[in-house]
Design goal:
Length: 427
């Protein structure tokens, strides 16, 4: 007999889950009675951004509504011209009429100091300002422009995100740090200096904002780059050197699967280490693509990691030679789409339903086991198997479906299960 004594556990099981969240200050982003808390003990917040021309107030308000309905808790809009700034109050008013209370974040570059000063209605309609100190001029001009924006934020009691980006890093700071680096006994490589400059820029500008009168509880920081390993390193450094809440995002992540994979790879590592208080997935949409996809990806990252729950999750097998039929693929797709469509109603009617797990499996190898582990699951017949589909509810075999209406019958069973388990009489 083989001796396995050396494999017996000699210590406690390894912990499962992300590290405790890094302690930070808490920032409140508000509109009307809606308060979105960022940092502190608040859950990680999902953020997105419109890609409409802000001058088109109706189109922008419609896209903000779509993003908010998809689950974006903050929505950023571009404010780059006087015409755009003039329309921000109209966008806010249109959203309020539609019953959409999501706070708006104004994205400012180059001329933000002028726009906020010239259009006080815009400054008031926004709930937060995003400031990039790297594109506000140089020297005293940069300091004055930054000070003007912070003064407006203080006047209207608005929080700010000081967002440093490696594509628009303060050239004077970078040059100075490169000079200092050349005097080191062992100089760093240029990429390391750039990463350090991002962190120094973010923290020094945050401290400057505090000196100008902005509350420490009104500042969020970000340092965005487009390479995964650089982003992880920058945020680990930033998180160790300050206690401001941090906004995570891989900038210019790209299109399709590349953008999703790169963003997930970077953000998952940081979130697992307890770093990050808001996230945005900066996907380049395909022509005519749905902007809400970035919201769904952000939610799925957080839910897959067990950090938040937004909608019931569907477990489905990838398929193999045992599952030549496409029935289980079609059922998994239709059930997943159905669950997401139902959530705007379900989240208020059935508290807790977002944590439900559904399994749609394609054959008898792992199907019954996965179905038993789910709250509700179905194991469809694979190639050559008996044409029947057992349904499991809370770990027990409940019913076996047969015939051409399996999909419709299973959806009805899911509806009944949700009502029975999460309905008002069962809370």
């Amino acid at each position: 007999m083989t001796d396995h004594s050396d494999l017996e556990p000699v210590r406690a099981p390894l912990p499962v889950g992300a590290a405790p969240r890094r302690p930070t200050r808490q920032v409140q982003v508000e509109w009307g009675g809606r308060i979105v808390r960022v940092g502190g003990d608040a859950p990680v917040v999902v953020q997105s951004m419109t890609n409409t021309d802000t001058v088109d107030a109706i189109a922008t308000a419609i896209q903000v509504k779509e993003l908010a309905q998809a689950g974006s808790e903050l929505v950023r809009i571009t404010v780059n011209t006087p015409e755009a700034a003039r329309e921000v109050p109209a966008i806010r008013e249109q959203l309020d009429r539609m019953g959409v209370s999501v706070p708006l974040v104004g994205d400012f570059h180059y001329n933000g100091h002028k726009l906020l000063g010239q259009f006080p209605e815009c400054a008031q309609a926004l709930s937060k300002y995003r400031i990039n100190p790297g594109n506000m001029g140089g020297g005293k001009k940069r300091d004055d422009n930054f000070a003007q924006m912070i003064e407006v934020a203080c006047r209207y009691e608005k929080p700010v995100r000081i967002g440093v980006n490696w594509g628009s890093l303060d050239h004077e700071l970078m040059a100075r740090m490169m000079d200092d680096n050349s005097k080191r006994a062992q100089p760093w490589d240029a990429q390391a200096v750039m990463r350090d400059a991002l962190v120094v820029s973010a923290i020094s500008n945050a401290r400057r904002a505090e000196e100008l009168g902005l509350s420490p509880n009104g500042i969020v920081l970000s340092c965005k780059v487009s390479h995964v390993q650089d982003l992880i390193t920058v945020y680990r450094d930033l998180s160790a050197r300050c206690d401001y809440p941090l906004h995570l995002g891989l900038t210019e992540a790209g299109m399709g699967s590349k953008g999703i994979v790169a963003s997930t790879a970077a953000l998952a590592v940081l979130l697992q280490q307890g770093i990050g208080d808001t996230i945005r997935i900066s996907l380049t949409p395909e022509p005519g693509g749905d902007r809400t996809r970035e919201v769904i990806v952000a939610q799925e990252i957080l839910q897959s990691m067990g950090l938040r729950a937004f909608t019931p999750m569907v477990v489905a097998c990838p398929g193999c030679g045992r599952t030549s039929s496409t029935v289980f693929q079609e059922l998994a797709d239709s059930i997943q789409a159905y669950l997401r469509r139902q959530m705007p109603v379900w989240k208020t009617r059935y508290p807790g339903v977002e944590t439900m797990n559904v399994a749609v499996m394609g054959c008898v190898v792992n199907g019954p086991g996965e179905s038993r582990h789910a709250d509700i699951g179905i194991s469809l017949p694979g190639t050559g198997e008996i044409p029947s589909a057992p349904v499991y509810i809370d770990g027990e075999r409940s019913v076996t479906l047969k015939g051409d209406s399996i999909a419709e019958e299973f959806q009805l069973i899911v509806e009944q299960y949700v009502e029975r388990r999460y309905g008002a009489g069962n809370q």
